[in-house]
Design a protein that fits this description.
By secondary structure, the protein is an alpha/beta fold. It is 37% helix and 27% strand. The chain is built from 14 helices and 23 strands. A hairpin with a 2-residue loop joins strand 19 and strand 20. The two termini are 27 Å apart.
Length: 448
């Protein structure tokens, strides 16, 4: 996260005091992981030397967010002369606060400065948030940093691509996407390619490369039943073929035609391929050509740093939902060992099924969708707990316990009334604020 930090204070306020307040504020942001271009103190000196110097210092620097740190009263013109040079950059208007000395409150009139500026910045059409500190309370550097994360994520989305092998698995409607509106509103591209390209590359994968993956990655898995060696080798070969494509085209997320592609045409359930891609490349993965699911994953990863795993809904209950997966989970969300077994579902070919346990804890679940001409992000918080014993009808008996969670929610009925897809993306912890910030920046409607 790169940001410009410009600290302001009125020319008649003691300079050492403004410098100390700005220094402390900048240090608190660095502790949150921000890389700063620091310019302070900027005053309203008559010759406007500070303003010109600030603009000169910032003009050739790279930053995503402009933080306007008001450490004391400052006339608006001194701030606006700088912001007008960078009006395309999202900003934070951050007012610091006073302090107590013995039995009296001492202030540099920080909020006089911010309240004179807030409406002006809004009327000028800037994209910004307003943050103010309170005497006796911790600094709100975390709130500033959260917004900076969202700004950086929005920039990354504009520069990112998701890869997709095939399109519209099972003829589903909810996995479709509109390329132009997606690019215009959210930012990323979704690039499709044919399964034939994977097969052609697979035929040229060296046996030595396959053996290396078997030794280095597959050997880490715990097999509950013995798996066919040929199945494992084929899965590794497909993984290596897709790895080439993903790395060459710099995809940040990936999906493929699952049921009507890998399973139907190649007779190979792709769970182990997804596992290897997620765990070795750290890439977001989701099955069934779920276009906006992939985009949601990138939004989650760029804001939280987490892999953005998907879960699918199986049952709704009074105070919780049962969510799981019929194929795989990334190692990042696995509690304990990665456990796998050969298994078949219905008339589909036998494949390697992940039956690991999912980490429990506080969750943020989200899903991006398009409704008519607008994009909407559905956000909900929950608590993931270990599920009761359950099975999905159709698996070879004895049926496997699929990876899953029971997710407790405040209002399951409201969630069900607004649910956007069978696939939702999870992250651990409460990440609603940074996702809301990101959606506001992009013009995406928020539904909670």
């Amino acid at each position: 996260m790169k940001a410009a930090f410009v600290g302001f204070g009125e020319v008649n306020t003691p300079k050492k005091l403004i410098v100390k307040k700005c220094t402390d504020a900048a240090e608190s942001l660095k502790k949150q992981g921000l890389e700063l271009v620091e310019v302070f103190p900027v005053t309203d000196d008559y010759e406007e030397k500070d303003v010109r110097q600030a603009i000169e210092n910032l003009q050739h620097k790279e930053f995503d967010t402009l933080i306007l740190c008001v450490a004391g009263w400052i006339p608006t013109h001194a701030v606006v002369k700088i912001t007008e040079e960078f009006r395309h950059v999202p900003m934070v208007l951050w007012g610091l606060c006073g302090w107590y000395e013995e039995n009296r409150l001492v202030t540099t009139a920080d909020q006089a400065g911010t309240t004179a500026l807030r409406k002006v910045l809004s009327d000028l059409g800037y994209s910004f948030i307003y943050v103010y500190d309170i005497i006796g309370k911790p600094t709100r550097a975390i709130r500033v940093a959260t917004y900076c994360k969202a700004v950086t994520a929005a920039k990354k989305l504009r520069q990112s691509k998701a890869g997709m092998m095939g399109y519209r698995d099972m003829n589903l409607y909810g996995t479709l996407f509109d390329g132009l509106s997606l690019k215009k509103t959210v930012g990323p591209e979704i690039e499709t390619f044919d399964m034939l390209e994977m097969v052609q590359r697979y035929e040229n994968i060296l046996e030595q490369s396959i053996q290396e993956v078997l030794n280095q990655e597959i050997s880490k898995w715990t097999f509950l039943k013995r798996a066919d060696e040929d199945v494992l080798r084929k899965g590794v070969g497909y993984f290596l073929a897709l790895k080439q494509i993903i790395q060459e085209r710099k995809f940040k997320a990936f999906s493929l035609k699952d049921v009507d592609g890998m399973k139907k045409l190649l007779g190979f359930p792709p769970a182990m391929i997804f596992m290897l891609l997620a765990d070795t490349l750290g890439i977001c993965t989701i099955p069934e050509n779920d276009s906006l699911g992939s985009v949601t994953q990138m939004m989650v990863k760029f804001t939280t740093g987490q892999i953005g795993a998907y879960l699918e809904f199986y049952e709704f209950m009074e105070d919780r939902v049962l969510a799981g997966v019929p194929d795989y989970i990334p190692k990042e969300i696995t509690a304990g060992e990665t456990m796998v077994m050969p298994a078949a579902f219905g008339e589909l070919s036998q494949g390697i099924l992940n039956v690991s346990k999912v980490k429990t804890g506080e969750l943020t679940m989200c899903r991006l969708t398009k409704t008519n001409d607008r994009y909407v992000m559905h956000l909900v918080k929950g608590e993931g707990v270990t599920p009761r014993k359950w099975e999905e009808v159709g698996w070879t008996q004895p049926a496997p316990q699929l990876p899953g969670l029971e997710i407790l929610m405040e209002d399951v009925e409201r969630f069900a009334d607004n649910v956007m897809s069978q696939h939702y993306i999870i992250s651990y912890g409460d990440h609603t604020q940074v996702l809301i910030d990101l959606c506001v920046l992009l013009g995406i409607e928020i539904l909670q």
